Amino acid sequence: MAQPIVEPIRSSLEPSRSVLTSACPLDCPDACSLSVAVEDGRVTKMDGSQRNPLTAGFICAKVRRWPEHVYGEARLLHPEVRRGRKGDGVFARVSWDEALSLLAEKLRVARDRHGGESILPFSYGGSNGLLTQDTTDLRLFERLGASRLARTVCAAPSRSAAAGLYGRMAGVALNDYVHARMIVLWGVNPGVTGIHLVPVIQEAQRRGARLAVIDPRRTPLAKRADLHLAPRPGTDLPLALAVIRWLFEEGRADLDFLAAHAHGADELRRRAAPWDLDRAAAVCGVPAGDIERFARTYADSSPAVVRTGWGLERNRNGGSAVAATLALPAVAGKFGIRGGGYTMSNSGVWNVDVAGAAAVSPAPDAAARPPRTINMNRLGEVLLGLEPPVRVLFVYNCNPLATMPDQERVRRGLEREDLFTVVFDPVRTDTARYADLLLPATTFLEHHELVKGYGALILHQVPPVIEPVGEARPNYRVFADLCDRLGLTRPQDPQGAAALSAALLAPVPRQRAELARDGIAAPDCGVAPIQFVDVFPRTADQRIDLVPEALDREAPAGLYGYRDLPVSAAFPLALISPATSRTISSTLGELHRKLVPVELHPEDAARRGLREGDAVRLWNDRGEVRTALRLNPDLVPGVALLPKGLWSHNTRSGTTANALVPDSLTDLGAGACFNDARVEVERDGPADV
Ligand SMILES: Nc1nc2c(c(=O)[nH]1)N[C@H]1C(S)=C(S)[C@@H](COP(=O)(O)OP(=O)(O)OC[C@H]3O[C@@H](n4cnc5c(=O)[nH]c(N)nc54)[C@H](O)[C@@H]3O)O[C@H]1N2
Ligand SMILES: Nc1nc2c(c(=O)[nH]1)N[C@H]1C(S)=C(S)[C@@H](COP(=O)(O)OP(=O)(O)OC[C@H]3O[C@@H](n4cnc5c(=O)[nH]c(N)nc54)[C@H](O)[C@@H]3O)O[C@H]1N2
Ligand SMILES: [Mo]
């Protein structure tokens, strides 16, 4: 193993242990700095450190259990080939050399006989740093001419909206929320999904800040809020437009700011005009008086900050809904002061050179036809119906059977006998059971990584703290080996973690020097920029574009055009699948084997004659899930909840929420419409939980 770049710090409590520095790359805004205790080459304990000020020395309970993930029963220790039927999970051990020869041969034959597009790389990489996604993997697949993947399962609508309006300007730093007089949590649940914001919010509240939460559930933070608006899932767009309309109508819009810094204010005002409080109230299910109180409090408070999450994007109106919430601070004139403005995702602030590290051409050759692009949200349909067909599916940094929409069609696609599926993962996931070839990957404790925050404005350089477990190998090595075996390596290609890091960081020498010196670096805008003081929209003229033409063309009903929600007499309940504190997406799900109940409001349960603990079946015309029932008075009536990230072992049917989720796409960014699932629930045998 390479020597850790950061000197081990001796813990004062247990001098026999090495306490090493790391950082968490999992798909969370916080990008925590970690202290990892290592004894005799094994990780024994992980906790937060002080390096990232947002981490403040503590981490979430799930990552404290990471050592169980690293050394657990589900860990893949060596390559394996399928011996049973697809889905049975019966495999036999092979050597890396055999595995890579077989795989290289499959890739070569697919390309030579059917063209590179018959190969589909399938990765999302939300829980990967910069070294294990889009480096040597991108090199391999681009040089094979493989189908390209549109990574749209998360944040695509939000990113489209943020890019269109603000050119992905850096957001308000999470630590700066302490300065706000009003904090709006819109479709975001930081008590679960980014816990380090919670103490900052509580401190702001102690100093007198108002808290508003917009969420169809009464989350723990909603219970401590001054205002909780509980819209029906998918109705944030009319809600935000009603607030915008109110601001204009009541003379609370900041016309001077809009004139100086924005385009499209009049057009936005026109598009919001139909949404008076009563009409919005009827669609959203939020009392008109509450919408008005929210609008007035927001107008009156400064600094006021809006934290937009991802709960509002996961429906057919999601892109326009995010755009409308991002327009609020512009209309109300909330920028230009510490603690005022908005935070979406900060992933756009790192100007690293991905194409350079991958050694692929950044701009496609205009003369050559680029390979086709496949939307990951349509995986089931793609595997079952796309022509010419996908013949090799290469899954890594992703667990699609658990996480993509339309699970039953994904499953049937994975069952295709003429499909060769390779799954490269640290653990035996649900998807892995359908693999023809399994390859064991290292976790972030076992390889080099560059971890970037998408909430915290911080970049970490993290060396491995232990040797790879079993025969696991890092992504950057395996994909480089495949390039070699296929004759695709070129002499100038950056190889290995150090060269890949250097290539990635070539455009940002300051960050490169900071990382070499301190192991952490801040972006050019600093760790706590003030919007419209330190950072400005990264649009062509540094102005906000409230109605960008490209978005207006893309959205089927035009930007800010509301499309009625799916209604079905047969399936009247809206199913939402928010994150839990047990897993991050499906990662760590192998450690949680209990039955996970579906949650209903007591009124919805009573109407169906159902009681707490009953065995129930929830279904629609795509699939079914059989599990237990839990009553949850904190849900709005008409909503069912089955969390995100479940594995097949968490329900009686082996299916999860995604078996009920359509593969329809959002208005902007072609994202997933998880919360457009509509379901019915009935009793399924005797009560037994
Ligand atoms: N512990 C943990 N942390 C995570 C994750 C995880 O799985 N577990 N996932 C990570 C990832 S990949 C992401 S993208 C982020 C997501 O971070 P968040 O956006 O905070 O998480 P979600 O649970 O998807 O949704 C947030 C809230 O939106 C609400 N919601 C659902 N539908 C609607 C709606 O139509 N309108 C509004 N206003 N609210 C709605 C849900 O009830 C939920 O409380 O979290 C990251 N952090
Ligand atoms: N119903 C429903 N479904 C959802 C959501 C929802 O709200 N509702 N949310 C969606 C969201 S927000 C997201 S972001 C997606 C995420 O969906 P996925 O991208 O599938 O994320 P994970 O489930 O975390 O799977 C990541 C996999 O990569 C593996 N991995 C980690 N590091 C490495 C590495 O270095 N090398 C290799 N080869 N493998 C590695 C992990 O072990 C894990 O199995 O899920 C989506 N699914
Ligand atoms: Mo996500």
Assign the CATH architecture of the largest domain.
3-Layer(aba) Sandwich
DSSP summary, beta strand count: 28
Strand order within the widest beta sheet: 6-5-18-17-16-7
Head-to-tail CA distance between termini = 48 Å
Strand content: 15-25%
Largest sheet: 6 strands, mixed
CA-atom Rg in angstroms: 25 Å
Average pLDDT rating: 95
CATH topology of the largest domain: Dimethylsulfoxide Reductase, domain 2
Oligomeric category = single chain
Bound molecules: ligand MGD, molybdenum atom
Structural category is alpha/beta
Query: Counting H and I runs of at least 4 residues, what is the number of helices?
Result: 23
Number of domains: 3
Outline of this structure?
With 689 residues, this protein is of the alpha/beta class. The site of one ligand MGD has 35 residues, from α6.
Question: Please, could you describe this protein's structure?
Answer:
With 689 residues, the chain is an alpha/beta fold. It has 3 domains: 195 residues, Rossmann fold (3-Layer(aba) Sandwich); 214 residues, Dimethylsulfoxide Reductase, domain 2; 111 residues, Barwin-like endoglucanases, CATH 2.40.40. It has 23 helices and 28 strands. The strands form 7 sheets. Strands 6-5-18-17-16-7 form a 6-stranded mixed β-sheet, covered by helices on one side. A 6-stranded mixed beta barrel has the order 23-27-24-26-25-28. A hairpin with a 6-residue loop joins strand 19 and strand 20. Helix 4 packs parallel to helix 19. The longest helix has 19 residues. The radius of gyration is 25 Å and the shape is globular. Bound molecules: ligand MGD (2 copies) and molybdenum atom (MO). The site of molybdenum atom has 3 residues, from loops.
